[in-house]
Design the sequence.
DNA sequence: CTTAAACATTTGTCTAGACAACAATAGTAA
DNA sequence: TTACTATTGTTGTCTAGACAAATGTTTAAG
């Protein structure tokens, strides 16, 4: 039955409205799963995302603003998110000598270790492909990109 | 370019991973738009959703638990969300005589009036169909439903 | 040099999702 | 009746998104 059953709404006014609710609901569903999964590593989904962003630049550090523009939740508070990671010693945070407005953030070995552990979790990474095909994933990406265009 | 450009990530490890990020990012993008739009009516997107749920049952009232299971964000705090709407006089809230554990929630004429106003906003309701076709919307629904199955 | 504008980040405040603990009520069975 | 269990909703606490204001720094203009 799909989304109608999930939000217990028999009928949507249009296929478009249904799609909007479906995106929001699926995202929430996915977020809940991610939150539950990452809990064992003591991080939130967006903290995981920040760690991955930092690994992409490693060993070079990144500025807060550069991290922010790569984040999924754009309006999230990067300062406080990074501070949480610093308290858990997953990132380093040092004032930039060259430009004292900036703060250089880099991932620590502890942060890298957590990412490696998650990388190796076959079950986590293959969950989606047990549900949809590669062709469907590609089609999904195409339509979502088009919707935001 | 699509999602790669939006999160400034040149390459994803798989089409599936890209799709997961794409769903989360698109949902956040959509949520931001909705938040901005509903601000003029002094409600949040999930408050709008609760009003629509209540209109679906109107003039019968609904229990909190029944509202909660129809919400997009399942783990949201229904008590507090409804209380916000009550303070704005968009819903009524009365203790149920027959079962004193229950609270009967119903939408007020003020709440209905806001929904009517939004109903008539052609621009809001047709935004999606300017971007994707009906066939694409249907395909999107099909794939998202399959992913959650 | 002084001043203004732009930049990079921090902080405060509100809203709300996540989740557990709690309280009150109703139903059921001995 | 009493005790047990399930139901229904409320409250507290933590995390984090939304957004505006404030702080300190650098750059550019005059």
Sequence:
């Amino acid at each position: 039955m799909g989304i109608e059953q999930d939000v217990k709404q028999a009928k949507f006014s249009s296929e478009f409205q249904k799609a909007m609710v479906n995106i929001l609901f699926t995202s929430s569903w996915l977020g809940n799963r991610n939150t539950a999964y990452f809990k064992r590593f003591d991080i939130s989904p967006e903290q995981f995302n920040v760690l991955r962003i930092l690994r992409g630049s490693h060993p070079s550090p990144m500025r807060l603003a550069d991290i922010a523009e790569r984040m999924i939740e754009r309006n999230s508070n990067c300062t406080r998110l990074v501070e949480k990671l610093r308290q858990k010693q997953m990132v380093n945070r040092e004032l930039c000598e060259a430009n004292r407005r900036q703060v250089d953030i880099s991932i620590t070995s502890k942060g890298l270790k957590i990412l490696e552990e998650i990388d190796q979790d076959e079950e986590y990474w293959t969950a989606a492909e047990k549900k949809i095909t590669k062709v469907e994933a590609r089609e999904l990406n195409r339509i979502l990109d088009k919707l935001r265009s």
